[in-house]
Amino acid sequence: GDEDAGELGLAAVPGREAAFRQGLEEAVRYATALGCPRIHLMAGRVPLGAERAAVAGEMETTFIENLRYAADLLAQEDMIGLVEPINNRITDPRYFLNSPHQAAAILEKVGRPNLKLQLDLFHCQIMDGNLSCNLQTYFPLIGHIQIAQVPGRHEPNSPGELNFPYIFELLESLGYTGYVGCEYAPKGDTLEGLSWLRSYWESRGLQHGRTSKAAK
C-alpha cells in the first residue's frame, strides 16, 4: 500500500483490490528470486474516519475474496500465504486483523490449505494472553512464529511477562519444525542482544550455531 497515505497492507481494504493484486504479483516475483516460500498478506487498516464495527463486515468480505485470490496464485508457485494478527491496544489501533481468534475464523471461511497463521506471540499476549492454550488450539493453522518480550518488545530475556524457554519447549513438544522469527527491537547492540540465544543453546546442551527444532 501507500505508506505515505497511512496504509499498512491492502488485503482487507475495500476499493483497493487492484492495488493488492498488483502488489501480490510483485511480491511473488521477489519471493521467487529469493527462494522464500512464504508471503505475509497484510490485512490493512480501518479507513480513517470510519468506525470499526460499521465497516467490519465489508472489510472481512474483501479480505476473504482477496485471500482466496492470493491462495490460488500462490498455489501455482508452491508458496504459503500468511496472515498476522497485530494488536490494536498498543501497536496499531486501526489494524483490521487483531486476534488469533479472528484470523482463525477468517481462514476457515477462506478454506484454502496454503493459507496459514503467522502468530506473533507479542501481539497474541497483548490481545489475549493464554499462550499455552492458544498455541495448542491454533497449532494446526500456524505457518510461522514470531517473538518479542512483552511489553517492551525487546529481547526474549529482557524483563517482561513471557517465559520463552518454556514457550520454546512447548513448541518442540507440539512438533513445530519451522523458524522462530525474532521480531524485536534490540535494547542495544544486535549481536550482544543475541546472548539470550547462546544461553538458551547452552541450557539445552547445544553448541553455538547448532539449532533445535524451535530455535532455528
Polypeptide structure, described:
The chain contains eight helices and five strands; from the N terminus they run αβαβαβααβαβαα. It is an alpha/beta fold. The chain has a single domain, classed as TIM Barrel, CATH 3.20.20. Strand 1, helix 2 and strand 2 form a beta-alpha-beta unit. Helix 2 packs across helix 3. The radius of gyration is 18 Å and the shape is globular.
Low-confidence stretches: none
| C-alpha geometry | globular
Q: Give the H and E element order.
A: HEHEHEHHEHEHH
CATH homology superfamily: Divalent-metal-dependent TIM barrel enzymes
Assembly of the depicted chains? single chain
Strand-residue proportion? 5-15%
End-to-end distance: 31 Å
So, CATH architecture?
Alpha-Beta Barrel
Q: Which percent bin holds the helix content?
A: 40-55%
**Count of individual domains:** 1
Sheet with the most strands? 5 strands, parallel
Keywords: Isomerase
GO molecular function, one term: hydroxypyruvate isomerase activity
InterPro entries: Sugar_Epim/Isomerase, Xyl_isomerase-like_sf, Xyl_isomerase-like_TIM-brl
Pfam families: AP_endonuc_2
